[in-house]
Specification:
alpha+beta
Length: 293
């Protein structure tokens, strides 16, 4: 094989689109080695994925095969809102082994990567761009703009970073319907997306980010009702690591013929699930405050 497969799938809800993408990846993806493989690990399954969620806020939203719980969903959303921004590496300290970034930090404070010390010029990291606020303002002023984009990649850091950001960009545009409702459409691009361990978490997180941060910000500035239109998820490398293939088969691929879709998914708007999701926040915040992780 000389070409990496390009796969496109569409689903009404997140759970439907996520499951369909995994099935197509498993059946049509190609095999790759990675720099993270350990001796004896099987090759990963990989493709370029274009996944469209037509109604991101619809249920069933949660897929029970994803390796996590409702608390991990809440923690990831809080992280996208800035909860862990203070845990990043001190770039002035070469011995600091913490991560170089958070997604929220790159979006809210793009360009800042180290504190200036005496004798350094401003060119070494003194500019700061709040991309979130800029996107909200741009869409509020001109909903049909094609320029409402945020990026994460900082080439002065990320080509040599131990774990550079997988998320690359977020692009938003609004359609207004006949009732005057704004529909916030998005394209979200990842250079690398671990389909089994992280893919669902990422998609869920950015649905909530788009709703609670971007759409809510536009609604506040315009007085309009803003809902989520389709989310198009683009992953240059959408993959299941070889070490995870057996687990994915046991938790999903070997169950599809024996379980109804309703048994493999949950409704996020179910009062019990919603309550558990919201109650998890206090314990998450407490843990991070006490342990820093």
């Amino acid at each position: 094989m000389k070409n990496i497969p390009v796969i496109s799938v569409t689903g009404k809800s997140l759970a439907e689109a996520y499951e369909t993408a995994l099935i197509y990846l498993y059946g049509k993806g190609t095999r790759f080695k990675t720099q993270y493989d350990k001796p004896g690990d099987p090759l990963s399954i990989d493709c370029t994925m274009n996944l469209t969620i037509q109604e991101p806020e619809s249920d069933p939203m949660v897929h029970m095969a994803f390796p996590g719980g409702v608390d991990s969903l809440r923690e990831y959303v809080l992280e996208l809102e800035g909860l862990k921004d203070h845990l990043v590496k001190n770039m002035n300290d070469p011995d600091d082994k913490r991560p170089e970034y958070t997604y929220h930090g790159r979006l809210r404070k793009y360009g800042v990567w180290k504190e200036l010390v005496e004798g350094e010029s401003k060119e070494q990291g003194a500019f700061k761009v709040d991309q979130i606020e800029n996107v909200i303002n741009k869409l509020a002023e001109q909903p049909f703009t094609r320029q409402a984009q945020m990026i994460t990649w900082m080439p002065n850091i990320d080509f040599t970073c131990d774990d550079p950001p997988s998320l690359q960009s977020l692009w938003y545009r609004i359609l207004e319907d006949e009732d005057g409702v704004y529909w916030l459409n998005s394209n979200i691009r990842y250079r690398s997306n671990d389909a089994w361990n992280a893919g669902f978490l990422n998609m869920f997180g950015f649905i909530q980010f788009s709703k609670d941060i971007i759409a809510a910000g536009i609604a506040e500035k315009t007085g309009k009702t803003v809902k989520l239109g389709r989310m198009n998820w683009q992953a240059d490398s959408y993959h299941i690591y070889g070490k995870d293939i057996r687990t994915a088969k046991e938790r999903l691929f070997e169950r599809i013929n024996d379980m109804a879709f309703e048994e493999r998914t949950m409704k996020f708007n179910d009062p019990i699930i919603r309550e558990a999701y919201l109650k998890a926040e206090a314990e998450i915040v407490k843990r991070i405050k006490e342990t820093g992780a």
